[in-house]
Amino acid sequence: MPLTPEQLQRLLDEPIDSWDVCNLLSGTVDFLEFSESNLAWQRRRELQRAQERVHVPVREAPFVTSFRQAKR
Fold it and tell me: Is 56 in a helix, a strand, or coil?
């Protein structure tokens, strides 16, 4: 059941505890790390597939594997 505008406003007006924010950010970081590892795995798999198709080694290009690495 969707929230009414009054319920939504009351929800938005409530203070958010720092614990809630930490949990939210922690979940976001976990999601990003999982997504990045999944993308890296998919990239490796596609490179392997390309090697199998043409029987020529594919050179590994530099690849940022995490958002923490990209911030450096």
Answer: coil
50 contacts 58 by C-beta, under 8 angstroms: yes
Positive or negative: CA dihedral 19, 20, 24, 27: positive
pTM over the 0.70 mark: no
Please tell me whether residue 61 adopts helix, strand or coil conformation: coil
3-state secondary structure of 62: coil
* Of 70, 67, 64, 72, nearest in space to 29 by CA: 67
Please compute the mean of the pLDDT values over residues 3-30 and round it to a whole number: 84
